[in-house]
Automatic annotation (TrEMBL):
Keywords: Arsenical resistance, Oxidoreductase. Pfam families: Acetyltransf_7, ArsC. CDD domains: ArsC_ArsC, NAT_SF. Gene3D superfamilies: 3.40.630.30, Glutaredoxin. This is Arsenate reductase. One of its GO terms (molecular function) is arsenate reductase (glutaredoxin) activity. Residues 132-259 form the N-acetyltransferase domain. Belongs to the ArsC family.
Amino acid sequence: MRVTIYHNPDCGTSRNVLALLREAGENPLVIEYLQNPPDRATLERLIADSGMAVRDMLRTKGTPYKELGLDDPAVSDAELIDAMLAHPILINRPIVVTPQGTRLCRPSDAAAGLLASMPEREILKEEGAPFIVARRITGDNAEFVQALRDAELPVNDLSESARSFFTFSTLAGVHLGYGGFEQYGRDVLIRSLVVAPEQRGKGVGRNVLAVLLREAFDAGARTGWLLTTNESAFFEKSGFKPVSRDAAPASILATRQATDLCPSSAALLSRAITL
């Protein structure tokens, strides 16, 4: 089975994914879908094989999404696909098909999980940041716990339920940091995000956060929340906005982070999780 990428050459994310596939030794079939859009059966198969909802495969930025009224939740999947076929710019990109699976690779790091083998050297994205690989860890991982302590972040509730934690590294295995979330239905509390000291000041943090949000998205979350005492500016650059605690769902306000582990002065921020 040949690897295929539904590619937009004007999209930096799509270019990064294509470069990664080639560096990994693949010779992908490149379909520039704006000029050669898939037919209905192919598009439906791509969406089904990705495991995503039709609506989640829509691109909203820089498209006629709102003008066509597609933000109305009453619009059916069939009608959404009709719109995507009529306006291929609505198909989010890049979609990659491999023997390992089919995936919408946003952020571009998401393509790493589709590689049959990792590149033999470190690969950087166009903006100079490394590709990031996320691996699950348990809350009692000793290095993780120590990193949180060193960063003066809470460690007293790491073993409780509804928590997912990850270690992040480059393709070549260079450690970048840790992060996690607590999930309550479609809401997640982003937490325990710490970048390795030697990686700070390089833009690694925002890329790690993007990968963490994709993990939350794949778990079914659509709104992210977090509490911070001194990093509001960092998170706001990644789309989080300050909100009052009255705006948060009860499940988030009932977390240990909100009730006793973070000071009452901690700012609450939120953002939609989309691709």
